[in-house]
């Protein structure tokens, strides 16, 4: 099985579905990663910070063992200024190239406008009758809106993978301390909450947008 995580930013994949991606990889699935935005010069990031973030993404890609990675290179924090048709076309091209069976992506209800734009574009780009995709899954990224998927319809037990997820999260050193929801304590606590909902020590929660069985 081929599994694609479509992220708005680097770290979405780990915060939202790090344990799930590790579980897929351990099961022998091929995992893939597409990041829609990148920090740009002249904005809120210095050239040094941009370089550091690129290096962190490389380290994370190696840590997960992603078979392939796409950088769409749209401007971070400015995605709502990008024409929707352009964003849809780029995501469509990645999905055609990746040919995944499952796509995980960020939530249309998140606080961050980049996340909302990515999910809306993904729904337009990924159609059951036009792609190889058999499941489109919306994730919750607690730093962009805790519980933003509403009532979850899908859970993954990540108990065996939680510690490794936290090790990978630490590779995002430039994001450390950015807000209280990115801390190890917060991420572990939320995994325990979601786990408690389904009788497991730790879990990640999702909303199934559609599936073909």
Write up what this structure looks like.
It is a single chain. This protein is of the alpha/beta class and 213 residues long. The protein contains 6 helices and 7 strands, in the order E-H-E-H-E-H-E-H-E-E-H-H-E. The protein has helices at 12-26, 47-64, 84-98, 113-125, 162-169, 184-197; strands spanning 2-7, 30-38, 68-75, 102-105, 135-139, 154-157, 203-211. It has a 7-stranded mixed sheet with strand order 3-2-1-4-5-7-6, sandwiched between helices. Helix 1 packs across helix 5 and helix 3 crosses helix 4 (113-125).
Please give a quick description of this structure:
The protein is α/β, with parallel strands linked by helices and 213 residues long.
